[in-house]
Amino acid sequence: MKRTRPVLRLRPLSEEFAGAELGDERLNRRLNRLADQLSERATESFPKALADESQLEAAYRFFGNTRVKPEAILEPHFACTAARAATQSRILVIHDTTEFEFGGNTEREGLGRLLRPGQGFFGHVSLAVEATPTHAPLGLLGLESIFRHTAAVPRKKRKKKHHLGESARWARAVESAQSRLPASLPAIHLMDREGDSFAILNALDEKGRDYVIRSNHDRVLVDVAEQTHLRAAARGTTPVIDREVSLSYRPVIPGPKGKRHPARDARIARLTFAATQVNLPRTSTAKGAGATTLPVNIVHVLEPEPPADEVPVEWFLLTSLPVATPKQIAYVVDCYRARWIIEEYFKALKTGCQYERRQLTTSKRLLNALAVLAPVAWRLLLLRHLSRHEPERPARDALAPSQISVLRALAKHPLPPKLTVHEALLAIARLGGHVRANGEPGWLVLTRGFRDLLLLERGWSARAQREK
Fold first, then answer.
1. pTM of the model
2. Where are the beta strands (DSSP E) in 178-266?
3. In this structure, which of 222, 260, 325, 339 has its CB flanked by the most CB atoms within 10 Å?
4. Are the C-beta atoms of residues 12 and 34 closer than 8 Å to each other?
5. Which residues contact 464 (CB under 8 A, 6 or more apart)?
6. pLDDT tens by residue, 282-328
7. Which stretches does DSSP call E strand in 291-400?
8. What is the rounded CA–CA span in Å between residue 48 and residue 35?
9. Are the CB atoms for 143 and 74 separated by under 8 Å?
10. Is pLDDT larger for residue 449 or for residue 235?
11. Domains (ranges, CATH) in the chain?
12. Residue 248: pLDDT above 60?
């Protein structure tokens, strides 16, 4: 019988790369060493994280080596993720795209245009998490890079091929993740509004994949009177669940993203859930023969009485999961709420690992560095998850003995003899200026705390060497 709640172990990160085939055993050893070095000093630049100039030069040669490919670097981590997933009775796979922007006045070889002026590329990530209330992160199942080297096409002049070219990555990522998972393991694929495309829904339906996708398009439905739209049909359904949910603070976000995600204060919101089934018309972009309609379940989440001057919460969730009972409807909503974990993963990668600040001059080197740092960011995310959901785990599972010694020496109040992961993370956050009354520390304050800890650890270790 499969376990539904295995214990996630914090192993040396080099084990996530064991078995990598880079075409040369020396390159394989270099990858393992880099992984452990960078996992211990994820917030530091490469010159600071590596012990001396020879190791730094070796790292730069590794990232630029023509035999080193990001796919080969990541494949062992994908396999480890699949092995962790195989211990579950069901998992969630979260898909999302993020933008990597690299500043500076020097043009870097191979980078493309972004949504705003600048140079970089897009990363499409598939992150596996447990289908449990805590949604522990299991690791990556896919990472695809997208470069825009051609000039932008005005929206009015776009042809279907311009839209379908990049949007096909969503269905491609689903199949890539599924190919790595055991065939008998049920997986639910989660996507935000960018995944709301009939071509994507059709591809998921044809392959029999389960999904929860937030609706972006208010489509005209078929088989209903007076050309009813999707949102009208969902709003006309009687709510069957009433639940209070804690909403976090959201700052003002400039640009189009801010329109989709307006600023709000933290509050407790009363939400209602309702569900129905509709039929979507098959479009000309859908491949293959078959039925002319696509049946989809819709879960409508609404905040009926928001505070004055606050935009009400309202979600329309498209899903293949059953919605016949209140329990099934609530499960769909709980699945989608796990989607925020991938946003935390991106913060771990960009803030915790400082990926966008890496001073590498070509897209090849940047992609190889991303392949090494992507599992490092997952491990940072797992560390914070354990501190929140398994706070009594011993700190030695997460930190080196010298780091624990530094924390004990600097603590204003004595730390407990049996230090836990949660207590250790709070001590690190205090180094970064965190005030406990402000709640759990965020990535910025944790980054500052880790940076100070690593600097202090270096001095601590140097002193210990001199005293020998």
1. 0.87
2. 187-191, 210-214, 241-247
3. 339
4. no
5. 402
6. 765 555 545 578 899 999 999 999 988 888 999 999 999 999 999 99
7. 293-302, 314-319
8. 15
9. yes
10. 235
11. 1-192+341-389 (no CATH), 212-338 (3.90.350.10), 391-467 (1.10.740.10)
12. yes
Single-letter residue type at 418: K
Question: Which of residues 173 and 291 earns the better pLDDT score?
Answer: 173
| 124: number of Cβ within 10 Å | 19
Structure tokens at 226: 């007076």
Residue 310 CB contacts under 8 Å (≥ 6 apart), including other chains: 264, 265, 267
Specify the 3-state DSSP secondary structure of 73: helix
Using one digit for the tens of pLDDT, what is the confidence trace for 103-159? 877 889 999 988 878 899 999 999 999 999 999 999 999 999 999 977 655 555 555
Q: Which residue has the tokens 């803030």?
A: 351
Alpha-carbon torsion (283, 289, 293, 294), positive or negative: negative
The sign of the CA dihedral 382, 344, 124, 335 is positive
How many other C-beta atoms are found inside a 10 Å radius of the C-beta of residue 340? Answer: 12
**Angle, CA 374 vertex, CA 373 and CA 380 arms, to 5°:** 85
pLDDT digits (tens, 9 = 90+) for 41-56: 777 788 888 878 888 9
Which of 382, 298, 300 has the alpha carbon at shortest distance from 341?
382
CA-wise closest residue to 280 among 218, 323, 340? 218
